[in-house]
Write a structure and sequence with these properties.
Layout: H1 7-10, H2 12-21, H3 29-59, H4 67-93, H5 95-114, H6 121-147, H7 157-200, H8 211-222, H9 228-264, H10 266-290, H11 297-342, H12 349-364, H13 379-399, H14 419-425
Length: 429
């Protein structure tokens, strides 16, 4: 098994995946030119295939679903086009931020190596492989789930290939971008966790040796003559002070590198979260309308399975990204709790001074993930999305009309429903 020895070697799977989908970064000048050329080829090829797919879907596929379903899947179709045309250029623009982040990360790695902290490059390497394998599995499942309902009978093979590529390429592109962003979020979480473990090993407060007992013991030792144990204690205190100073420096560099990474992927996350919110609401409303349609069991299955697949796809993006960002933020904030426990009278003045400086640094430089500054990525955002989706879904159900043939206090008229107007009236939380 390949054993990476440097940070550059540990991110090889991520680099390869980004290069394959056309968003390669962190390469030499010659490599950047090749990446830009390859990305342009991907964009031109995708646009040509999308044009062919749009013509075919307009003639065949989109006419076999009802009006609301027509607009819903058209919304997904064109949203994926916009995301694709935005994400590939974003790969070029994020190079500057990622270069700054990598410089700070390498500085942190060097300092942590001097502190004796394990680098765990193999773990980072394997995590990327597992994440990319999961992307492939999800992609295959996605293709299988949407395959039956995407074509009419006697569809030519080449047309099937074109449509499958046009519909699923944005899915792969989004997943690779999400995996890339989550890798750096996970990296920061792992490093913060290692720093916290190092600080916790410095804690001496236990139920058997509380702080007040050590203060009394320290007072008794002042009245005793100078001994070898006192010298050993002074040496340990100096080592702890140096360790605290090094941890403070690494913690700050990790915060700054993570911010640079967040800025690099900010536009992608903003577009992804916004479109996910709008499409989750629309798809849930469409799924609700399917239950009121008179159709056979087979037709119901063909209509519902793709809808559920797209809902799971966009919901998973919102849940996983925000959860990982929240866990990294919590791990970075836990450092403050640990150093406050280390602040006690039995330690030296220099050590307490370092803790005070560290506390001020944590207050001035909190770790917060944002989508270009519009909203924070954490558990609160998940709660907001759930509440907003529920609110707008109830509003859409109340103002809509159910199809004739089903009894209800409210009725839905699909022909009068304007999907575009619905998009424009939905405001993001």
């Amino acid at each position: 098994m390949f054993q990476p020895k440097t940070m550059q070697e540990s991110i090889v799977p991520l680099l390869v995946a980004n290069i394959v989908v056309g968003t390669g970064i962190w390469t030499s000048k010659r490599g950047r030119l090749l990446n830009v050329a390859y990305s342009l080829i991907c964009m031109v090829t995708y646009c040509c295939l999308m044009k062919l797919s749009t013509e075919y879907l307009g003639d065949y596929y989109l006419h076999k679903v009802n009006s609301l379903g027509d607009m819903t899947f058209q919304g997904i179709f064109y949203a994926n086009i916009c995301l694709t045309l935005c994400l590939i250029p974003c790969g070029w623009l994020r190079r500057k931020h990622m270069k700054a982040a990598m410089m700070r990360i390498l500085m942190c790695e060097k300092t942590m190596d001097q502190m004796g902290i394990q680098k765990n490059y193999r773990k980072l390497y394997l995590n990327q492989l597992y994440a990319l394998i999961l992307v492939v599995v999800v992609f295959v499942i996605f293709v299988v789930v949407n395959y039956d309902g995407m074509f009419v009978e006697d569809t030519p093979i080449h047309i099937r290939f074109i449509i499958m590529f046009a519909v699923n390429y944005p899915v792969v592109l989004l997943y690779v971008g999400d995996v890339s962003f989550l890798h750096w979020v996970s990296y920061s979480k792992i490093r913060f966790e290692q720093l916290n473990n190092l600080l916790q090993r410095m804690l001496t407060t236990t139920p058997d040796s509380p702080q007040h007992k050590r203060v009394l013991k320290m007072k008794d030792e002042w009245n005793k003559p100078f001994t070898a144990s006192a010298t050993q204690q002074d040496r340990r205190t100096k080592d702890n002070t140096d360790t605290m100073r090094a941890v403070k420096q690494v913690h700050l560099e990790l915060i700054k590198s993570t911010r640079s990474t967040n800025e690099a992927y900010g536009i992608q996350i903003l577009l992804s979260m916004t479109i996910s919110f709008v499409l989750i609401t629309s798809l849930l409303y469409y799924a609700y309308s399917i239950f009121w349609e008179k159709m056979s069991r087979e037709a119901f299955r063909q209509e519902m399975i793709p809808v559920v697949g797209w809902i799971l796809f966009y919901s998973s993006k919102v849940l996983i990204i925000n959860h990982m960002c929240a866990m990294a933020t919590i791990e970075a904030a836990n450092t403050g709790d640990i150093i406050c426990e280390l602040y006690e009278p039995s330690t030296s003045k220099e050590f307490r001074a370092e803790i005070r400086d560290f506390t001020l640094q944590l207050i001035q430089n909190p770790l917060i993930f944002t989508a270009c500054g519009f909203f924070n990525l954490d558990h609160t955002f998940i709660h907001g999305v759930i509440g907003s989706v529920t609110t707008y879904l109830v509003i859409l159900i109340q103002v809509g009309e159910l199809p004739s043939g089903k009894s209800s206090n409210s009725t839905i008229n699909y022909n009068d429903t304007n999907f575009t107007d619905m998009f424009t009236t939905v405001s993001y939380p």
